[in-house]
Amino acid sequence: MGQPLLRLVDAVTVPVPDLDAGLACYVDRLGHELLWRNDELGQAGLRCPGSETELVLTTRLPYAPNWLVDSADAAAEMIIAAGGRMISEPADIPVGRVAVVADPFGNELILVDLSKGRYRTDDTGRVTGVDSGGQA
């Protein structure tokens, strides 16, 4: 077998009532650096020092790790072939693709690829587009 399927924890989503309140806590009080903010999605990405993992404040998603994979579609197929099941079919997101599956033991895995690139931001951290180039 080649490389392991799950490359790293790409992000951990943390639900907040609204982005401004979340940023006041995690940036102003806890010291995390704002990487990007996308009000349309109700999300803001914060740096976790010493790691590639982002802390993603969200107004719409549950608390969960998001696993970086080379291809969300292929990773979902592999987990299903290993006895898992599909929870949410692969779909486009601004930076790539995402799928939600359950392993054979019922654990949900959020699979994310960065096949479209990473967010491009202005000086305030607001998302202005996506820089192509795929996964880092």
From TrEMBL:
* Lineage: superkingdom: Bacteria
InterPro entries under this entry? Glyas_Bleomycin-R_OHBP_Dase, Glyas_Fos-R_dOase_dom, VOC_core
Q: Residues in domain VOC?
A: 8-114
Supply the PROSITE patterns for this chain. VOC
This protein is called: VOC domain-containing protein
